[in-house]
Write a structure and sequence with these properties.
With 408 residues, this protein is an alpha/beta fold. The chain contains 14 helices and 17 strands. The chain has a 7-stranded mixed β-sheet, with helices on both faces. Helix 2 packs antiparallel against helix 10. The longest helix has 21 residues. The two termini are 44 Å apart. Bound molecules: ligand C6P.
């Protein structure tokens, strides 16, 4: 079957030529942020050289060109998520802002004291803390969906958690700490059967597999551009049109209004601009569109298949390391591996392996409740992308063996 041409892919990433402490960079922290292809980098240069202007307002050529490029990305994101309508795509800074938008614009208008929100134990803090803030301010109740010893969401417990007060399920599509891929279509069906909505945090799914929000029947879906080979500062919230239309704005300012008057009050813009107050990160949004075009040019299925091969190779090599324990052993995982090593602190491993040019992440990965449940306060985490290779994984594991020898 078709396989990804990793040499061709790597040629698009100038940063991969870098040396770190004299060693070739081995970048395995893609769950934190992915690297940026030259086509995306060039977008910034082109924008600021040729058509930088504020959007939606000016009636001049540059403003028209900037607006067309910005709104062109809305169509690119619509297609990427297979949303029905372009107006169902709201640009945000990223996943965190998207989730906060839902919590504040939908949550405050629709949740009242005693209403229940189901959140899984494997959530990232950006899909926990906004709901905790609402719980403090509105008196809503957060219930935690447990996971089993593999880091797989407990579906039976999920079903049992629903009551007539359950209004929303907030879950990630893929765990950034353990790599678990959740059956979001099934989770959505169960939520809807109980008249609850579902928000899906897609930050770690968007880079690894095709997303179809209509097939999933997601009510809200969020992702960040910088994890899908795009820039920081641009991401998107998908929301069903009927839900977005019924939501009040969450930030006030220019762009999100139709008319403003001290006498007759203010009327708000239609969706999605109602949720895009002020001057946005124009170049970043345009670059996000270019990143998604780059991904589609390679093919997400091909990227996902390649990462599965890398995950299998890395898992095979890591399980052979003496004293190493992998956390997160779901049968259905994305390219993320968390592990601990007996007798060695994760942070020490991360610092020392960096001296050999290898970039992994160590710590709690903004998933403290999950790690605490598994009895650790930190793990080492390697996460893969389209430009990684089996040879890089071998260099990583050989370096890991060396470093473990030093710290033990
Ligand atoms: C599942 C999940 N959900 C939300 C976020 C937040 O994305 P932002 O672009 O920062 O808003 C992230 C980002 N996780 C990074 C930084 S903590 C990681 O190293 O795993 C995520 O993985």
């Amino acid at each position: 079957e078709l396989t990804l041409d990793v040499v061709k892919v790597r040629a698009d990433f100038p940063i991969l030529e870098r040396k770190v402490h004299g060693y070739p960079l081995i970048y395995l922290d893609n769950a934190a942020t992915s690297q940026t292809p030259r086509q995306v980098i060039a977008t910034f240069d082109d924008y600021y050289r040729r058509y930088n202007a504020n959007i939606h307002r000016g009636l001049h050529t540059l403003a028209d060109e900037a607006t067309a490029a910005y709104e062109g990305t809305r169509e690119t994101v619509r297609a990427f998520l297979n949303a029905r309508e372009r107006r169902e795509i709201v640009f945000t800074r990223g996943t965190t802002e998207a989730i906060n938008l839902v919590a504040n614009a939908w949550g405050r208008a629709n949740l009242k004291a005693g209403d229940e929100v189901l959140v899984s134990l494997m959530e990232h803090h950006s899909n926990i803390v906004p709901w905790q803030l609402l719980a403090e301010q509105l008196g809503i109740v957060i219930k935690v969906i447990p996971v089993d010893e593999r880091g797989v969401l407990d579906l039976d417990a999920y079903r049992d958690l629903f009551t007539e007060r359950t209004r929303l399920v907030a879950v990630n599509h893929v765990s950034n700490a353990f790599g678990t891929i959740n059956p979001v279509k099934e989770l959505a069906g169960i939520a809807h059967a109980h008249d609850a909505l579902i928000l899906i945090d897609g930050a770690q799914a968007a880079p690894h597999e095709p997303i179809d929000v209509q097939d999933i029947d997601a009510d809200f879906y969020a992702f960040s551009g910088h994890k899908v080979y795009g820039p920081t500062g641009a991401g998107a919230l998908y929301g069903k049109a009927a839900l977005l239309e019924a939501m009040p704005p969450w930030q006030g300012g220019g762009e999100m209004i139709k008319t403003v008057s001290f006498d007759t009050g203010t009327s708000f813009a239609d969706i999605p601009h109602r949720f895009e107050a002020g001057t946005p990160a124009i170049a970043e949004v345009i670059a996000l569109g270019k990143a998604l075009e780059w991904v589609s040019g390679i093919g997400l299925e091909l990227i996902g298949g390649w990462e599965q091969q890398l995950l299998a190779h890395a898992t095979e090599r890591l399980v052979a390391v003496d004293g190493l324990r992998i956390l997160g052993t779901a049968p259905h995982k994305a390219g993320v591996i968390s592990f601990v090593v007996d007798g060695a602190h994760s942070q020490d491993i991360g610092l020392l392996i960096d001296q050999l040019g290898v970039a992994i992440r160590t710590g709690h990965h903004c998933a403290q409740p999950l790690l605490t449940h598994f009895g650790v306060d930190a793990t080492c985490r390697a996460s893969f992308a389209a430009y990684n290779t089996p040879e890089e994984i071998d260099i990583f594991v050989d370096a890991l063996e060396r470093v473990i020898g030093m710290v033990r």
